[in-house]
Structure formats: C-alpha cells, structure tokens
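Re-run with default settings, no changes from the original entry. Doing this only to confirm the output is reproducible before filing.
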Amino acid sequence: MKIIAFSRTEQGSGASRRLRTAGLTPGIIYGGTSAPVSIKLDHNNLYHALRREVFHSSILEMELDGKVEKVLLRDVQRHAFKQLILHVDFQRVDANQKVHVKVPLHFVNADVSPAVKQAGGTIHHFVTELDVSCLPSDLPEFIEVDLSAIAVGQSIHLSDIKFPAGVAATDSDSSKAIANASAPTVAAPEATEEAPAAGETPPAK
C-alpha cells in the first residue's frame, strides 16, 4: 500500500490543533539511519486506510516530499469519542533487518470441523493476532489457522500453527492456546409445579 505524507515544521499542541482543523493529521517517521521527521497526512485518506486490516500489518510505501520510503505503522492515537485520528507514528524499514510485527489471524474451515458440523459446538478464539519476526520481504498480511480437524474438547496451540517460510512467532510458549472447541450449551428444563393429589388441599400462596 502507498501513503502520501508531507514534512511539517509546525510544532506544539496549538499547531497540531490547527492542522486537525485543516483536515490534516500530524505524525512522525523515525528509525533507520536518518533523523526523525515530523509529517502531516490527509486525515480522511488516513482514516479510511486505517480501517483496512492490511494497513496495520504490511510494509507501506510512504511518499514523503517526492521520496518513497518503506515504513511500518507503529502507533495510532485516536480521539476518545470522535472519529478523529490525533497522531500517527511510522518506522522506517531496512530490507536486511528483521522486523517485529503483529499479524492478524484468519480462522478458516470452522464450519466443516467435527466440533461444529457433527457436534454443533462452538469454537472460541483466544488470540486474534500474533507478534512475529521476519524480514520485511517475508511479512505476511495474515496467518491462517486451519480449524477443519478440531473436535469438541480440543484446542489449537501455538505449536499447531503453520507459519510461512521465514516467519517465526516471538512468543516462546508453544503451548499457548489459540482457540478451542466446546460442546453446545443445553438449556436446563424448566421446573413444573406438581398437581395436588385427589382430596388434597393445594398449599396456600
């Protein structure tokens, strides 16, 4: 994905408010061998880009004053209740150095699993993204978790996930639970009042 930014000289909270009023979002790009650069981006374009999953877990091409650099989105500050992006941080990427990135998990084939198709159970996701380490060229947009073989009472662990070539989880706990399957919930039958036997007086209420 490509994003367009412009360097900015405006500094301070007052300058940032004026930028936001003008429909721009302040940010910064840092890392690598170059000094950090304060930037500004079109707020609407940025807002819609942030709604795409791939924007958060992919190497981005940032055009900054006519020069293109490869970057990763590192932080987003949002307004507490307005649909407003307050600030964004990007990190420069070196093609020869590994990066640590949170990559989303896509759970597939749950509907054909024994837990769901045969037992009518429910699959619970404990983790929706994983922190991975890899070279920028190996960074996947997402990682698939195949649920086709899971049965009721079974779990998928970190050790069960098949990572793309060159990609490894940074978490060393291979037994970490990613998802599990539980039996369907059966509602308890409602209690019914017994009718009084012949000749008995119903209890007073």
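The mean pLDDT is 90. The first strand starts at residue 2 and ends at 7.
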